[in-house]
Amino acid sequence: MWGGARGIVYFDVGGQRIAVTHRTRDALFAAVGTRLADGTGFAVATLNLDHLVQLHESPAFVRAYAAHDIVVADGHPVVWMSRLARRPVSLVPGADLVVPVAALAADAGAPVALVGSTSDVLDRAGEAMRAAVPNLDIALTYAPPMGFEPQGQNGEAAIAAIRDSGARLVFLALGAPKQELLAARARPILPQVGFVSVGAGIDFLAGAQRRAPLWLRRLAFEWLWRAVNDPIRLGPRYLRCLAALPGLAVEAYAGRER
């Protein structure tokens, strides 16, 4: 069920309201820039169709999402459904946020942490980020161990490493739902730190994964590119998403403003 209140787009999952709080990229950047300048923490989630499917299956993921201050639409299906609901939002891919948000952190003098992936990927991503944002301070690169569980001792260790580094902005590249679960856990513990979940954005920046060409992204076929390049891992995910899409679209249409 989709709905809207005071200009905010939201949908209900098991009675919990999940809001797309910022409709455009500019609105997101304005909010993040203000919070970094003020020293106020935040957590950014990038909603896509896979997240919608997981949210309908996992109460823990719903609670984690609800703890995020800022949610944007990362995925053409979410944008299409917002139009069906007559509450349109713009596409804001998480992979496109890394460098611009890092630049906002540099302008605010906020040290940055990269959490996720592997040490080698994080090192290469850090080099690419410094090349794009020369005054960027990367205070921490943290590659969690295999089997990382954000709610367990591994999560506690990651939060401690972030705290000890002095980072004020953390890019989480752990994949959903782990990155959102860690952000939700860390948010009240580190109230002056911003968390941005970017999924494969760090891997793309490091060259560890090749992103779909721009023309394919504009045609909304980035998912197909990723599925073809990683069929064992991503094929089942996208099949589940495609199966869920008609029902979600019906819900969006049923919830449209009149």
Q: How would you characterize this protein structure?
A:
The protein has 258 residues and is of the alpha/beta class. The protein has a single domain (2-254), classed as Rossmann fold, CATH 3.40.50. It has twelve helices and nine strands. The chain has helices at residues 25-38, 49-55, 59-66, 76-84, 98-108, 119-132, 153-165, 178-189, 201-206, 214-218, 222-229, 231-254, and strands at residues 2-5, 8-13, 16-20, 42-47, 70-73, 112-116, 138-142, 169-173, 194-197. The strands form two sheets. It has a six-stranded parallel beta sheet, with helices on both faces. The mean pLDDT is 91.
Give the second-level CATH assignment, the architecture: 3-Layer(aba) Sandwich
Biggest sheet: strand arrangement: 5-4-9-8-6-7
* CATH class call: Alpha Beta
Number of H/I helices: 12
Q: How many strand units?
A: 9
- At the fold tier of CATH, the topology name is Rossmann fold
Count of structural domains: 1
Helix/sheet category: alpha/beta
> Helix content range of the residues, please?
40-55%
The rough form would be described as globular
Give a short account of the largest sheet.
6 strands, parallel
Q: Secondary-structure element sequence?
A: EEEHEHHEHHEHEHEHEHHHH
CATH homologous superfamily - what is it?
Answer: AF0625-like
End-to-end distance: 15 Å
Overall average residue pLDDT: 91
CA radius of gyration is 18 Å
Sheet-strand content, in percent, reads 15-25%
Extract low-pLDDT stretches. none
Q: Could you write a compact summary of the structure shown?
A:
This protein has 258 residues and is α/β, with parallel strands linked by helices. Helices cover 51% and strands 17% of the residues. It contains twelve helices and nine strands.
